[in-house]
Amino acid sequence: MNLQERELSRETKFVGKIISVDVTQVELPNGQKTEREIVTHPGAVCCLAINEQNECLLIKQWRSPLNRLSIEIPAGKLDATDESPLSAMKRELNEEAGYQAGYFEELNNFFSSPGFSDEMLTLFYCDTLTAAKTKLAADDDEFLEQMWVDLATAKQMVADGEIVDLKTLFALSYWETMQLRSATNG
């Protein structure tokens, strides 16, 4: 069965600092027509940053859409259409936490919410962290606090509902899998 929808038209309804919102008219596989509301986003990066004590870097910040504090891995959006995910991740790690890393590995690409948004995130792993020689300033509207936690503490924070951010849950799952593989390989 062909599940592909055919886009008939697209109209931009809103353009903001981070996102834009388009309304598209599509033809469904059965020939019927409907509308889709699509949030377009430049893309983002996030990283599982692990220190020498085998702790993960987490960032606390207020998230207005949730009306609550959120605890997340370091992350941010691509600032320019030609900025590479790795360059963006290095910048964000410095801006949000004041660190640089001697090693980065791209782990995965994933979509945050494909039902209505095209935002693709690139997840990196990094270690060999050192204080950045020159700390970049965080965005004017960002107020951040950092913390380091081991895997057991992170898992408890998930169980207690303290960590509810999907990219962070995904990264913590990767970290747990990495540790399990390391333990079985010896």
From TrEMBL:
GO terms for biological process: nucleoside phosphate metabolic process; ribose phosphate metabolic process. GO terms for molecular function: hydrolase activity. InterPro entries: NUDIX_hydrolase-like_dom_sf (IPR015797), NUDIX_hydrolase_dom (IPR000086). GO terms for cellular component: cytosol. Residues 39-171 form the Nudix hydrolase domain. Keywords: Hydrolase. Its cofactor is Mg(2+). SUPFAM superfamilies: Nudix (SSF55811). Signal peptide: none annotated. It comes from the Bacteria. Pfam families: NUDIX. PANTHER family: NUDIX HYDROLASE DOMAIN-CONTAINING PROTEIN (PTHR11839:SF18), UDP/ADP-SUGAR PYROPHOSPHATASE (PTHR11839). This is ADP-ribose pyrophosphatase. The lineage of its organism: Bacteria, Bacillati, Bacillota, Bacilli, Lactobacillales.
